[in-house]
Amino acid sequence: MKNNRLRSIYTVPYTVWILLFVLAPIALIVYYSFFDLTGNFTLANYRNFFTSVYLTLTISSFWYAFLITFFSLLIAYPTAYFLTKTKHKQLWLLLIIIPSWINLLLKTYAFIGLMGLYGPLNAFLEVIGIGKQQILFTDFSFVFVSVYIFIPFMILPIFNALDKLNPALIDAARDLGANGWTTFKRVIWPLTLNGVKSGVQVVFIPALSLFMITRLIAGNKVITLGTAIEQQFLVTQNWGMGSTIAVFLILFMFIIMLFTTGKERGATGNGKNRKAS
Where are the transmembrane segments (predicted)? Predict the structure, then answer.
């Protein structure tokens, strides 16, 4: 009885936090999505979202989010794997995570300086005879900078999954004659899939709603749902349409979380026998 009472008391801060900072903002967004510029109740915002303009925008957002997630995973997985094999793996992991502590705006402006027409990258291209190139305000620069920013968040969950992997399972696969690729495909990848899913969550979902990087790095060449929301709220002052886009963005995020949430697998440990519970 006492434990139940204590548990109820401990859940109060969590419940208040969820109500004030999760459910209340979502409720306000849904509420404002039913009003037009003049403050009248309308369903036109939802009808407008299913027009070709916003559907194209949604497809474009998913495409860029997919590219950012794909390249982040492509780099992060082998990086996390080799980190687990190094002597001072926690130190190397810390060095990878430290850049994520730097303000996002500062990092973005740093890349503007690096990729600008008079920046170091173009200076290097001139030295090797290629000449100055328009690197900024392109799809490449947007994806490259986004991948750089999100890579630490992809590496961390994958590193944790690989680090907890029971090495006895890998040894057993090799003893049974499996080569490196078969061991990875049949043992390592399935047992670290939850780490990959967590990485996809923390990269794909924020990538859908990017707006500052799209403005500063890609200019007007890349338009995502995030930039559309920013434009509706800050430029056209159409809070209703901006809220409607945000409602669908939240819905997309919820669906992605459902698909990327998996059960924890129990084949981890240090290879020693564990006492049965």
Answer: 12-34, 54-79, 91-115, 135-159, 199-218, 238-259
Tokens 């923390």 locate to: 202
Residue pLDDT, tens place only, 46-92: 999 999 999 999 999 999 999 999 999 999 999 999 999 998 899 99
CA distance 53 to 51: 6
In a 10 Å sphere around its CB, with 0-12 CB exposed, 13-18 middle and 19+ buried, how is residue 34 labelled?
middle
| pLDDT at residue number 60 | 93
Task: Please state the pTM of the whole predicted model.
Answer: 0.88
Asked if residue 5 belongs to a domain, the reply is: no
Most confident region among 148-152, 216-220, 264-268 by mean pLDDT: 148-152
Distance CA 206, CA 65 (A): 8
Domain annotation covers residue 272: no
Q: Is 131 a member of any domain? A: yes
Structural domain of 103: 49-259
Question: In the beta sheet, which residues pair with residue 165?
Answer: 268
The answer to whether 62 touches 56, Cβ cutoff 8 Å, is: no
Distances (CA, A) of 248 to 32, 49, 94, 245, 254: 13, 9, 36, 5, 10
Total domain count for the chain? 1
Residues contacting residue 53 through CB under 8 Å, at least 6 positions apart: none
2 located within any domain: no
At 165 the three-state DSSP class reads: strand
DSSP structure string for 123-145: HHHHHTT------SSSHHHHHHH
Tens of pLDDT along 184-197? 999 999 999 999 99
CATH code where residue 68 lies:
1.10.3720.10
